């Protein structure tokens, strides 16, 4: 295919998506030609028919054509996914409006409604290929029924694995301090490098939360619908304070169709980025948000404040009020009490050897005309038996999930490692191969023990394979059972992470803390 036809197709894509207008087409084409090292142009007939349904497929196709050309001409070296991403992000920026134009359009849309503004910005983030839709849809997703309601399970395939050549390039490159991290506003328009993704097509929306400057952007990996990130424009570390609650509530005031939450601010129970204060939100109702009250509580001088604990494997205090100032003050009071709370009988220690352990993962949303805050109690204590964390997935579950349980998992969405796609496929193939044979269960387990990648799953599979083999197995029911069992493991992961277990002893200990905080069960 003519390189000029590929260039024209990309320009037509920009016109279809509204990234550029007709008056911008020649300019955009010339910018793309420059990136490709071309100083001439030949007109080609373009008969591509774009629709909302096929535009992501066509974009993936045309970017591959342009990347292939660039790699052949030595413009991409080494020819890896990372280097192709760095290059084609620059091509996409040839179609992008300036940051000030995006901000202006956003707030004009906001005058129509908060949803009109977020719809515009989310569409732009996808059309610009900042969110690579064709990668995000590769993620594997399903739901698993549990005693706490359906949990969301996903295997994350949208983040490319690092090529060894990229790792070597990053290691050999001069260490940079700019931008300081992936969340800093200096990422807007940044060209990227081997160890830092290109952000040429990245745009942010400035916000004021609790009087301070914050920014709104979307996650390029979109673990759920309209997965947004709200970040402090200053590079300051994560810290949960009463101000955190005010900012979360200010945000849901601005965007009542979104929730917003924060990872905890301590290692083990925090997220992957503790060095830059930020939140995550979006237009999605998580399983935890759907969970019902287990017990309701009353507080003297409640001033309309409602309180309950939630039927959920994590330990959740849910507060609700029409008065967001009263709500943030009460959440701040509970946080202060929890920071210093010790209950040795329940293995809750506020400090050991000078190290703080107690914190909170908070989530804010609107519930009708009331503000709602979920305060998830966290503790990062380690023991000799559980060196990665007493309230962290225990070792027997690490074959499925051993990473930190952050905000997204807390709310009931498992983000599982990409390796599980192949491992579950290999297990399914082994089951289908041996099913019907004599001693099938033993042969399946023996086959797993011989495999370096599958041996870690052998004990887990042994707990349910005989039950599955009572029936005639096929591709559909083997896959369904694997999904169900993986989902059950995630439920156990959340139970491990809960500081107060969902048994009588755990609920009594939870009551002790709430009584200490001045609450009485109704």
Task: Briefly characterize the structure.
The chain has helices at 3-17, 25-35, 55-72, 81-93, 99-112, 114-127, 133-136, 164-172, 242-254, 287-290, 324-339, 407-410, 419-434, 440-449, 458-462, 465-468, 475-497, 504-516, and strands at residues 140-144, 151-155, 205-209, 212-218, 228-232, 259-261, 278-282, 293-299, 306-310, 316-321, 351-352, 355-356, 358-367, 370-379, 413-416, 519-521. A hairpin with a 5-residue loop joins β9 (306-310) and β10 (316-321). With 522 residues, the chain is an alpha+beta fold.
Cα radius of gyration in angstroms:
26 Å
Describe the largest sheet. 11 strands, antiparallel
* Fraction in helix: 25-40%
User: What is the residue-averaged pLDDT?
Assistant: 95
**Low-pLDDT residue spans:** none
Euclidean distance between termini CA atoms: 72 Å
Describe the structure.
39% of the residues lie in helices and 16% in strands. It has helices spanning 3-17, 25-35, 55-72, 81-93, 99-112, 114-127, 133-136, 164-172, 242-254, 287-290, 324-339, 407-410, 419-434, 440-449, 458-462, 465-468, 475-497, 504-516, and strands at 140-144, 151-155, 205-209, 212-218, 228-232, 259-261, 278-282, 293-299, 306-310, 316-321, 351-352, 355-356, 358-367, 370-379, 413-416, 519-521. Strands 3-4-5-7-6-13-14-10-9-8-16 form an eleven-stranded antiparallel β-sheet. The chain is globular.
């Amino acid at each position: 295919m003519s390189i000029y036809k590929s260039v024209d197709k990309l320009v037509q894509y920009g016109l279809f998506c509204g990234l550029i207008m007709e008056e911008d087409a020649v300019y955009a084409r010339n910018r793309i030609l420059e990136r490709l090292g071309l100083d001439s142009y030949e007109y080609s007939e373009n008969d591509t028919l774009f629709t909302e349904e096929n535009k992501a497929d066509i974009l993936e196709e045309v970017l591959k054509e342009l990347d292939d050309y660039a790699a052949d001409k030595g413009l991409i070296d080494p020819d890896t996914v990372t280097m192709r991403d760095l290059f084609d992000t620059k091509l996409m920026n040839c179609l992008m409006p300036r940051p000030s134009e995006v901000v202006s359009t956003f707030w004009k849309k906001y005058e129509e409604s908060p949803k009109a503004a977020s719809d515009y910005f989310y569409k732009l983030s996808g059309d610009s290929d900042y969110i690579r839709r064709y990668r995000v849809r590769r993620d594997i997703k399903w739901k698993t029924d549990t005693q706490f309601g359906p949990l969301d399970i996903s295997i994350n395939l949208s983040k490319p694995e690092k090529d060894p050549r990229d790792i070597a390039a990053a290691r050999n490159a001069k260490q940079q301090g700019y931008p300081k991290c992936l969340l800093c506003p200096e990422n807007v328009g940044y060209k990227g490098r081997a160890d830092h993704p290109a952000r040429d097509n990245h745009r942010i929306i400035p916000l004021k939360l609790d009087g301070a400057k914050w920014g709104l952007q979307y996650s390029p990996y979109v673990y759920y619908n309209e997965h947004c990130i709200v970040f402090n424009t200053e590079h300051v570390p994560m810290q949960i304070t009463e101000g955190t609650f005010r900012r979360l509530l200010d945000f849901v005031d601005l965007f009542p169709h979104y929730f917003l939450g924060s990872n905890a601010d301590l290692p083990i129970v925090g997220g992957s980025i503790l060095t830059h204060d930020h939140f995550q939100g979006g237009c999605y109702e998580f399983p935890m948000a759907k969970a019902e009250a287990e017990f309701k509580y009353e507080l003297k001088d409640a001033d309309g404040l409602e309180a309950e604990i939630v039927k959920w494997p994590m330990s959740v205090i849910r507060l609700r009020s029409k008065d967001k100032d009263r709500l943030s003050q009460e959440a701040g009071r509970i946080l202060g009490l929890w920071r210093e709370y010790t209950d040795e009988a329940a293995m809750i220690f506020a400090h050991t050897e000078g190290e703080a352990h107690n914190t909170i993962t908070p989530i804010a949303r609107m519930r009708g005309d009331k503000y709602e805050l979920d305060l998830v109690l966290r503790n990062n204590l380690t023991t000799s038996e559980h060196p990665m964390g007493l309230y962290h997935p225990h070792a027997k579950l690490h074959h499925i999930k051993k990473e930190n349980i952050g905000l997204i998992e807390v709310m009931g969405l498992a983000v599982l490692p990409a390796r599980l796609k192949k491992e579950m496929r290999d297990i399914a193939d082994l089951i289908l191969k041996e099913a019907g044979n004599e001693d099938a269960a033993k042969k399946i387990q023996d086959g797993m023990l011989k495999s370096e990648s599958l041996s870690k799953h052998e004990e887990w599979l042994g707990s349910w394979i005989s039950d599955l083999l009572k029936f005639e197995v096929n591709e559909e029911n083997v896959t369904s059972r694997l999904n169900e069992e993986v989902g059950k493991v995630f439920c156990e992961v959340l139970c491990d992470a809960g500081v107060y277990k969902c048994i009588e002893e755990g609920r009594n200990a939870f009551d002790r803390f709430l009584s200490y905080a001045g609450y009485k069960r109704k």
